[in-house]
Each structure stands twice: as C-alpha cells, then as structure tokens.
Amino acid sequence: MKKRKEAFTLHFQCVEDHSLSVEIVKNLVRVETNKVFAKHGVVCHNLEEILDKYIT
Fold it and tell me: φ and ψ at 45, to 5 degrees?
C-alpha cells in the first residue's frame, strides 16, 4: 500500500502596513502545521529544517 502525500497551503493576511519578517512567518507556519500534524497523528522530526529550506 502506497502512502499518499497530501499537500496543504497556508495563507497569511497582514493587516498592518509593514511586511512580515521571516521569523514571524516561520512561527506562524510552525504553529499551524503542528495543529494539522496533531489532528492527523503526524510526527515531524525535521520541521525546523523544512521551514529553513522553504521560508527565506
């Protein structure tokens, strides 16, 4: 049985006139992905490396 990879997209809306810093975005993504992972019973041991790779 093949495991199916599922993708999801997070959208952020900035309500102030300044741009979001990389660290703020990483923190937001970390919180939201952990919610999704907990809901589906997923354990991710390399989340920090993934965030560093894809959020710059």
Answer: -90, -15
